[in-house]
Design brief:
alpha/beta, 5 strands
C-alpha cells in the first residue's frame, strides 16, 4: 500500500500552509492511501486542545474539523516532542489521538513512505 507523510512546520502564522497538508492527508485516506501527518516547529500548536479552532483558511473546512476527520479515518498524527518541549506544551495539553514522538520515529516514517510532502 502506498504511504504518504505530510510534514507541517507552520501554525497560525500561515493558516494556508497549516491547513492544506491536512486536506491532502484526508484526501489520501479517502483514496485508500495510508497517510501520516507530522507536526514540527510551530505546527505543534495545532495539536494543542482548542488551538485548531482558531484556524480557518477559506475555502477549506475549519482546521479543527479536518484534524478530527483525519484522526477518525485512522490517520496517524505525530507531534515532535522536542518542539513541544521548546514551547512548554505538555502531552496532557494535546488532543486525543496524537502520538508524541522523537526523531527516530519520524525518520522511520519518512524512510517507509512512498513520498513525503513538507509544508
Amino acid at each position: 500500500m502506498d504511504k504518504l507523510v505530510f510534514i507541517i512546520t507552520h501554525g497560525e502564522e500561515d493558516a494556508e500552509k497549516a491547513t492544506l497538508p491536512v486536506v491532502m492527508a484526508v484526501t489520501a485516506l479517502a483514496s485508500d492511501i495510508q497517510a501520516t501527518v507530522v507536526l514540527q516547529s510551530s505546527a505543534v500548536w495545532l495539536a494543542k486542545k482548542g488551538f485548531a479552532k482558531l484556524i480557518h483558511e477559506n475555502p477549506f473546512p475549519p482546521l479543527v474539523d479536518l484534524l478530527q476527520q483525519f484522526l477518525e479515518a485512522d490517520g496517524r498524527l505525530l507531534v515532535c516532542q522536542p518542539c513541544m518541549r521548546k514551547r512548554n506544551i505538555e502531552p496532557s495539553d494535546l488532543i486525543d489521538g496524537v502520538v508524541v514522538v522523537g526523531a527516530p520515529t519520524i525518520i522511520k516514517e519518512v524512510a517507509e513512505a512512498t513520498n513525503v510532502l513538507t509544508y
